[in-house]
């Protein structure tokens, strides 16, 4: 049976700070992935490294902090990065396809589907998609911020069986093993409740934007859609070979028993939250039990400034998040309507349906809420 796998490698590994330079790291990746590719399994690689390679080319001692310099460094580094991958995979007569994405590319259903179809076509052609965040053009508003989140969304988009996150530790621990000698290794995480109990105080390296925290977030996203996640030591050039053979390495996150669909995953994770709506008890019950749309009459309060078709968080009267959805109205329009008394509101819509604020097709219950059902 053909397996679909997404492998994610981060900047800290690609920079070759563990006795292997960048070219060697990429050559080892290509060797392992080419072997799996020869078994007719489908591989997608999500890679960081453009900014880091750009900084190397510019002889910068420290990674820039301003957006303009980061974008310029990414522009220089991205060409070097894809050239290295292309050369490495050419040794095995495998074509690669560069796919650069921002959060904006996944922020609408149509563009999400287009990205999914492009990746699927590359896989159908026998190519290996090389996916990276488009750091050259992305602003803070459109950035994923780390490729762990991006890799989880890509895994969902191509309906992957497995997501492998390569990192610079052997596996997940109960705490940071570099700071706590009593840290306990964790071999397997069975469900969301266990995942949520894991606490990590590990910070990303100077040259990376990830860390264990973002990998746990990626595991949360992917497992909610039925994708098994493995966290493994990317410093070991043989780790992928071992994983592909079925050996137990690193930490495994098993898929959740209650799964979200592709549309739900896209809506829940691909889009940035722009505001918050507090809803009454009746609306909460209607959403949780009846799968209803959210009406203007059920909104108690509006927080944040957002436009039409922006994504907002829905919270109940206790402040607990229960859902997210794409709001038909802007925050200003909602606030203006909320200033009208209930009596006036009822008279305004006496002969027509009360306006829908979030259509049920554009609304998804939060993962915690789904798990509690």
Automatic annotation (TrEMBL):
Gene3D superfamilies: Acetylglutamate kinase-like, PUA domain
Cellular component terms (Gene Ontology): cytosol
Gene Ontology terms: biological process: amino acid biosynthetic process
Domain PUA: 275-353
Record-level Gene Ontology MF annotations: ATP binding; glutamate 5-kinase activity; RNA binding
Keywords, in A-Z order: Amino-acid biosynthesis, ATP-binding, Cytoplasm, Kinase, Nucleotide-binding, Plastid, Proline biosynthesis, Transferase
Database matches in InterPro entries: AceGlu_kinase-like_sf, Asp/Glu/Uridylate_kinase, G5K_ProB, Glu/AcGlu_kinase, Glu_5kinase, Glu_5kinase/COase_Synthase, Glutamate_5-kinase_CS, PUA
A Pfam match: PUA
Name assigned to this protein: Gamma-glutamyl kinase
Organism name: Paulinella chromatophora
């Amino acid at each position: 049976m053909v397996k679909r796998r997404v492998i994610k490698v981060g900047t800290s590994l690609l920079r070759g700070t563990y006795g292997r330079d960048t070219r060697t790291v990429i050559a080892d990746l290509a060797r392992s992935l080419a072997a799996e590719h020869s078994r007719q399994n489908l591989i997608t690689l999500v890679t960081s490294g453009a900014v880091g390679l750009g900084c190397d080319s510019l002889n910068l001692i420290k990674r820039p902090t301003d957006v303009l310099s980061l974008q310029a460094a990414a522009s220089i580094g991205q060409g070097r990065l894809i050239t290295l991958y292309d050369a490495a995979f050419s040794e095995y007569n495998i074509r690669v396809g560069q796919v650069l994405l921002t959060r904006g590319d996944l922020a609408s259903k149509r563009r999400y589907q287009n990205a999914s179809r492009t990746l699927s076509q590359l896989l159908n052609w026998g190519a290996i998609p090389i996916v990276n965040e488009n750091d050259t053009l992305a602003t803070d508003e459109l950035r994923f911020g780390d490729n762990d989140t991006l890799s989880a969304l890509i895994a969902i988009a191509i309906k992957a069986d497995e997501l492998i996150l390569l990192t610079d530790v052997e596996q997940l621990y109960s705490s940071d093993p570099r700071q706590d000698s009593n840290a306990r290794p964790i071999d397997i995480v069975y469900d969301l409740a266990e995942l949520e109990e894991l606490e990590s105080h590990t910070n990303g390296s100077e040259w990376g934007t990830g860390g264990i925290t973002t990998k746990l977030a990626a595991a949360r996203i992917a497992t909610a859609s039925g994708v098994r996640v493995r966290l493994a030591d990317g410093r070991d050039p043989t780790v992928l070979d071992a994983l592909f053979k079925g050996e137990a390495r690193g930490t495994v996150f098993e898929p959740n028993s209650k799964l979200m669909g592709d549309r739900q995953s896209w809506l829940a994770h691909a889009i940035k939250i722009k505001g918050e709506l507090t809803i009454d008890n009746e609306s909460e019950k209607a959403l949780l039990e009846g799968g209803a749309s959210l009406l203007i009459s059920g909104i108690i309060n509006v927080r944040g400034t957002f436009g039409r078709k922006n994504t907002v968080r829905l919270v109940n009267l206790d402040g607990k998040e229960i859902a997210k959805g794409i709001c038909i109205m802007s925050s200003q329009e909602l606030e203006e309507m909320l200033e009208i008394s209930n009596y006036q509101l009822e008279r305004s819509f006496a002969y027509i349906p009360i306006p829908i604020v979030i259509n049920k097709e554009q609304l998804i219950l939060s993962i915690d809420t789904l798990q509690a059902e």
